Known about the structure:
Elements: E1 2-6, E2 10-16, E3 22-29, H1 33-36, H2 38-55, E4 65-72, H3 78-89, E5 94-101, H4 102-109, E6 116-121, E7 125-130, E8 136-138, H5 152-168, H6 176-184, H7 189-197, H8 208-217, H9 221-244, E9 252-257, H10 259-262, H11 267-279, E10 283-287, H12 292-304, H13 310-327
Parallel strand pairs: 1-4, 4-5, 6-9, 9-10
Antiparallel strand pairs: 1-2, 2-3, 6-7, 7-8
Helix pairs in contact: 4-12, 5-6, 5-8, 8-9, 9-11
Amino acid sequence: MLAIDGGNSKTAVALVDTSGRVLADVRGPGASPQNVGLARGLEVFGELVAEAARRAGLPPGERVAAHTAAYLAGADLPREEEDLRTAIGARGWSATTAVGNDTFALLRAGTPDGVGVAVVCGAGINCVAVARDGHTHRFPALGRISGDWGGGGHIGGEALWLAVRAEDGRGEPTALLPALRAHFGVGALAEVVERVHLGELEFDPHPLCPLLFEVAAAGDAVARAVVDRLVEEVVLLASVSLRRLALLAEPVTVVLGGGVLTGTGGAVVGAVRRRLAELAPRAEVRVVDVPPVVGAALLGLDALGAAQGAEERLRAAYRDRLAGDSAAGGRPTGTGG
């Protein structure tokens, strides 16, 4: 079984047999077709699949798996999922192919059966829900045009916006101002604004997101308000999904994932757990403890009717890898998004 987790910032590919044994696991750059284009996305996937097949000792030029389970950032609409399924299926990697949004892989990674709600906040923000009867609820997750608020890029942009307004007098005083001046190495953020406007500086808002969380943790009220707004949005996504599927009063798992949610030392997760308990008292909020590619692989194993014990064998393999990464001082891969 070939599993593909295609995120905005990284891509993971795994070959897994039906006993849950990992034959190969490779990582590469982000290749969301929405960001890099379909041709480039398929190129990256193809390179990683070929490398996984090589590591697994499979003969070149032949099918690498019975089934491909590809769960991708940017596959936000059913139409996009179908277009990607056709394009990936045409590569001939396997006899059958399933494609879905990567948030479904997060949900499966955090549950034993893929039933519940998953909210991811990494580069962007999204939420899906699956009821036990198979009904689903999801959001388009197309950015501001579809009503979204949140994600690393959005929050990083908010940090700059608030600091610039503090500097020019339109906004409240905030410790974000000296923090961002130090980050850019300037005496005034007006210099940064001018250089970005003139095309002399490429502005990437994502590194400013963890900076905002640091400033908020130190007690800054302006930064703290942004964190509170994120908590509100995560709770809103989860509670609306639970309400639409009539699950607010049911025992259900809510899975949280993505670097913005899981990489903040519990600042967001703890608040989400407390707020959601008021709305859905029987819900269990759980932070995913394995990489999203595990969820893609599990969905693939589900499709193939995997052998008993395959799921735990697969989970144990990745938990061992995460433990090894942590012991070596590496960043756990399960917190990406």
